[in-house]
Amino acid sequence: MMRTRPLKVALLGCGVVGSEVARIMTTHADDLTQRIGAPVELAGVAVRRPSKVREGIDPALITTDATALLKRGDIDIAIEVIGGIEPARTLITTAFEHGISVVSANKALLAQDGAALHAAAEQHGRDLYYEAAVAGAIPLVRPMRESLAGDKINRVMGIVNGTTNFILDKMDSTGAGYQEALDEATALGYAEADPTADVEGYDAAAKAAILAGIAFHTRVRLDDVYREGMTEVSAADFASAKRMGCTIKLLAILERAADGESVTARVHPAMIPLSHPLASVREAYNAVFVEAEAAGRLMFYGPGAGGAPTASAVLGDLVAVARNKLAEATGPGESAYTQLPVSPMGEVVTRYHISLDVADKPGVLAQVATTFAEHGVSIDTVRQQGKDGEASLVVVTHRAADAALSGTVEALRKLDTVRGVASIMRVEGE
Amino acid sequence: MMRTRPLKVALLGCGVVGSEVARIMTTHADDLTQRIGAPVELAGVAVRRPSKVREGIDPALITTDATALLKRGDIDIAIEVIGGIEPARTLITTAFEHGISVVSANKALLAQDGAALHAAAEQHGRDLYYEAAVAGAIPLVRPMRESLAGDKINRVMGIVNGTTNFILDKMDSTGAGYQEALDEATALGYAEADPTADVEGYDAAAKAAILAGIAFHTRVRLDDVYREGMTEVSAADFASAKRMGCTIKLLAILERAADGESVTARVHPAMIPLSHPLASVREAYNAVFVEAEAAGRLMFYGPGAGGAPTASAVLGDLVAVARNKLAEATGPGESAYTQLPVSPMGEVVTRYHISLDVADKPGVLAQVATTFAEHGVSIDTVRQQGKDGEASLVVVTHRAADAALSGTVEALRKLDTVRGVASIMRVEGE
Q: ipTM strictly over 0.85?
């Protein structure tokens, strides 16, 4: 079954992930050959800075002209680990046009232009694999696309950003505030100098869009994903969460509506019970909880980033794409046949945990309770706490539409007796 | 891309899993058609008791002659959910001989005859998929075979039997003894009337053999798997575990030796720290922890049994096999190119937690410590506890070869001052 002509691989980008991919392709060449049924050969490495010393990579393979590498006629598979929109998008399209299948780790591009790239792959009869684009090393795209292909996924809830999980875990375990925990994450290399993409939820939103498409067999654009960052989460919120037997995580949540006719996609911090499997995901680990009709509740856990873990996912895809190439077949392409509308955040049904600073006088609770009732939001529990003439009121609601909950909060802010809304957080995972 | 001639499926067995497979094939026919690219049709159902009423299945499809069904010439894919060795083995072989690809949920058969069945599938150019054979609905076989195909798996540690996890979780959370917890499991339908296969670890050992083969690309026979049941685990063991910040799980553990030249496979109860992700796997859930060289630490969690979850895994395989059939390709077959020897249990390196009942007099600890030293086993901690003239000694060792640890225990039993070895348990997951 073994053939000797090697499959030729063009590596586009040679940063943290790319250099690991090249290293493993070299050190594990024999294993890869056995698993694929043919050798794979690194036939070219396109980089921006050719002068940089790259250990273990033959300098003759280095080029700055990625397009020429793809067009030279002998490449079977391209691995795109450049990241960002351009030139990655044009290069991937060029690859398909030249009969080259593509493995990509590019979440931003897949989230923004996944549909067009899938269409291009299909048009040219080539593969587009991207396990590494979501949750790093964790096998997630393949299990959702293939293992659960005979099932119906109703809900996906995940921790898909390691930086923010590291920060929140620190806040939870040490009582630190946001800034202190962020500083530690930066010092340890878990957060970038500009942490915006992580802490404001942009990174998680891109992954949410990709996962929603796979889970629901529909197209979910990045703009369809409701996004709230976690920079406002405070030590006081963690104290409140603890009193409820909860912790706080930045979650990507994708849901099919009860009637099955629409979906929702959102990223925001939320309280989840300590008994939930996601609550025990520590440090920079990622985990994704999937609820399917027949399979029930599944969870996938592992490192969500890093050079070697991401390279592991890229190489798993490389093996699959190489096997497909030898069989002259392609793997499953985009499956977006349901065309379900994405509902706005206001239609999401969830629960709220609201902390209010209120005047310490009789009738306040009645006034607050009336406001909730007027907006059709049912209260689960209320806790009153007096302190030096001031008082605080912590309300946890039953499930209600997000718009009704927002409306309630807006009305509460206008009450004389409410001096301030100290915090608002959704409660998930029950 | 859509073709209209349906792929014809023979369902062999129609018990708890088979009837769910038939139900989902009917109710989700449109989804399956979209995901495969052609309709799949239930073309025949082989059963033992044809008179039994089977809701939702056309009685005209029912037959007692599974062999004739496979030989009739129009079947593309067979789903084997009979279980056990025969007639399942002969039927699967017959299927391959007639050009039929097979999806099986049969762990006992795969563990015993996996190599021969894989060889038969390859000889006839057909697929053999069996995601449902290990850990029910949890995508595990595909992620390990495909997602991690570019990585090197060094260790697999899993809870792969739901019945025993339910029992151990009850013992942990309620302080119940083994028999009481087993009775509850039986009453709730989690344990069978004869629970031997579960509680003695036979079921877990079969799954361990299958997983070891996939993880290490080598053949591991059922006889190669060391097996210890969990019927001796006591409430006192859980109390000891708690004092160490641990709980007790029945684990399947597969390891590649440090030199990479051999592997080990074993099933036994073990203490694991509460901070380990496997410690929080409750009730009848399964979870498998995989350590790979590049990917790092991954975990896969979900329901390990039950009709619908197992059917989900079967249908995922059905979609893959059907897609392969349409592409006139086959998926990855057995990958057993490494031919690594399986070392005996004595060579496994692990830690022990040993409770001794000893005479309450001076010099006992020195005598016990000397015995450990003589066998080359280094002690991590010792705790002494006196009670009414008797005393107990709890020793936790550092890592040592299992044979050295067994030898130590044997020698301890012969000491005058040791009145009895109250319990011995391995400590894992650190």
A: yes
